[in-house]
Design a protein that fits this description.
It catalyses: L-saccharopine + NAD(+) + H2O = L-lysine + 2-oxoglutarate + NADH + H(+). Keywords: Amino-acid biosynthesis, Disulfide bond, Lysine biosynthesis, NAD, Oxidoreductase. This is Saccharopine dehydrogenase [NAD(+), L-lysine-forming]. GO terms for molecular function: saccharopine dehydrogenase (NAD+, L-lysine-forming) activity. It is an enzyme of class 1 (oxidoreductase). By secondary structure, the protein is of the alpha/beta class. It is 33% helix and 12% strand. The strands form two sheets. Strands 3-2-1-4-5-6 form a six-stranded parallel sheet, sandwiched between helices. A six-stranded mixed sheet has the order 8-7-9-10-12-11. β9, α9 and β10 form a beta-alpha-beta unit. The longest helix is centred in the C-terminal third of the chain and has 21 residues. The relative contact order is 0.16.
């Protein structure tokens, strides 16, 4: 069997410091016979020399388009928008299977180049559960960002630029200090509380000092009656952590918020799920993703109502880049080790089948 080549590309999204491979998982792949190329990247949380020390070959930043076509290109976030054909096999979060903005154009690039997409979001085990996900750290970081936005609001300010934390302890202490030492008295509601993402949000709220009674933990049972939900307006922070796959009634809408007038406690909405351009978005009160440099966007409610801010950053786990990368890459490792047998291994054959189904829809949409 020939050596399996894997090429870790750099991330082009601003502030994205996470990595699909870590020096730890790269070494395990090399020990299993893989050949790993790593693009030099000053933005990545792991230094280039950490990869070099375990046997990876360092290559130029953004040089993957010239990589041998038998090298699988692995990254995290979507590629920059382009019309260039894609002849390689890519492993990444492409954000194009749920008809997000520009979805068909992304898939058309693979059609034109003859390449293949293995979307990380849709690599699942035999029970349908994702083999690797950043959900826990997304929820944890999203709740932290929500608490920081609330503190800024209480000080009459807008939340400024967010910077990654060295570790979880530093994040917890930083948030608590910003809130004056503790978040006691803050009330939060988490929808999707039983999933990975929701558990992360709940854990952060506990660790910064919210009492258990002030953390409302909702999941499918609590939302079964259908929204909008008045209870959301009665907390300080609302965190949405659901995985959306089909239409559901909105959790919250502008008419409901406006009708509440001055009698609204809600100050911050954190949409960790970030289905901004999804036609089924259950929080249709905003229309743009926010960023680490501009983490909040105000909801347009008119001049006489209290401010309501939305956080909709689609790569929140990069607030804890080292820990999030280590956890994700370690969970992904067993599937990566099966790449030489991807034509017969279920996790990869299922992912390739889904790619071809979605690509067929894109071809029709693009008129190719």
């Amino acid at each position: 069997m020939s050596t399996q080549r894997l090429w870790l590309r750099c991330e082009k999204k601003e502030f994205e410091r996470r990595s699909a491979l870590t020096p730890t998982t790269a070494k395990k792949l090399i020990d299993a016979g893989f050949q790993i190329s790593v693009e030099r990247d000053e933005q990545r949380i792991f230094d280039d020399v950490e990869f070099e020390a375990v046997g990876c070959t360092l290559v130029d930043n953004s040089s993957w388009p010239t990589a041998p076509t038998d090298a699988l290109i692995i990254g995290l976030k979507e590629l920059p928008a382009s019309q260039e054909p894609l002849p390689h096999t890519h492993i990444q979060f492409a954000h194009c299977y749920k008809r997000q903005a520009g979805w068909s154009s992304v898939l058309a690039r693979f059609y034109k180049g003859g390449g293949t997409l293995y979307d990380l979001e849709f690599l699942t085990d035999a029970t349908g559960r994702r083999v690797a996900a950043f959900g826990y750290h997304a929820g944890f970081a999203g709740a932290a960002a929500g608490a920081l936005a609330l503190a800024a609001r209480r000080s009459g300010e807008k939340l400024g630029r967010l910077e990654p934390y060295e570790n979880e302890t530093a994040m917890i202490e930083g948030v608590k200090n910003t809130l004056g030492g503790s978040a006691k008295g803050v009330k939060a509601l988490v929808i999707g509380a039983l999933g990975r993402c929701g558990r992360g949000a709940v854990d952060l709220f506990r660790k910064i000092g919210l009492s258990e009674d002030d953390i409302l933990k909702w999941d499918m049972a609590e939302t079964a009656k259908g929204g909008p939900f008045q209870e959301i307006l009665d907390v300080d922070i609302f965190v949405n952590c659901i995985y959306l796959s089909s239409f559901i009634p909105p959790f919250l809408d502008k008419d409901q918020i406006i009708a509440a007038g001055q009698n609204r406690r809600l100050s911050v909405v954190v949409d960790v799920s970030c289905d901004t351009t999804n036609p089924f978005n259950p929080i249709p009160i905003y229309s743009i993703n926010t960023t680490f440099s501009e983490p909040t966007v105000p909801v347009d409610l008119g001049q006489d109502l209290p401010l309501l801010s939305v956080i909709s950053i689609d790569h929140l786990p990069t607030l804890l880049p080292r820990e999030a990368s280590e956890q994700f890459s370690n969970d992904l490792l067993p599937s990566l080790l099966e790449l030489p047998r991807r034509k017969t291994t279920r996790v990869w054959t299922d992912a390739e089948k889904l790619f071809h189904e979605k690509q067929k829809e894109a071809i029709a949409a693009e008129g190719l």
